[in-house]
Automatic annotation (TrEMBL):
Originating organism: Shewanella surugensis
Stretch forming the signal peptide: none
Protein name, entry field: Flagellar biosynthetic protein FliQ
Gene name in the database record: fliQ
Functional summary from the UniProt entry: Role in flagellar biosynthesis.
Subcellular location: Cell membrane; Bacterial flagellum basal body
The organism's taxonomic lineage, starting at the top: Bacteria, Pseudomonadati, Pseudomonadota, Gammaproteobacteria, Alteromonadales
Keywords: Bacterial flagellum, Cell membrane, Cell projection, Cilium, Flagellum, Membrane, Transmembrane, Transmembrane helix
Family named by the database record: Belongs to the FliQ/MopD/SpaQ family.
InterPro entries referenced in this protein's UniProt entry, alphabetically: Bac_export_3, FliQ
Pfam family, one: Bac_export_3
Length: 89
């Protein structure tokens, strides 16, 4: 396997990871920002107030996007398995 193809595989793996993680994390970040603005506007300094909405948003995102995440991971895995003959030979 040439170094260029190894770098391509590594780059593709990193892009898949970034896409999958961002699908889970970004909704929680947006809800956390909204709750933080609400807390700043109302002067409520309760730490646990921002935890529950972020947790529920993350779980909801996993429920909605779970099939897409699994499909993306399976496509990447199948692509890696199909590349085995090129790596060996």
């Amino acid at each position: 396997m040439s170094p260029e193809s190894l770098i391509d595989v590594f780059r593709e793996a990193l892009s898949v990871i970034v896409i999958m993680v961002s699908m889970i994390i970004v909704p929680g970040l947006i809800v956390g920002l909204v709750v933080a603005v609400f807390q700043a506007a109302t002067s409520i300094n309760e730490q646990t107030l921002s935890f529950l909405p972020r947790l529920l948003t993350t779980l909801f995102a996993l429920m909605l996007l779970g099939h897409l995440l699994v499909r993306t991971m399976m496509e990447f895995f199948y692509e890696m398995v199909n590349m085995i003959p090129m790596v060996i030979g």
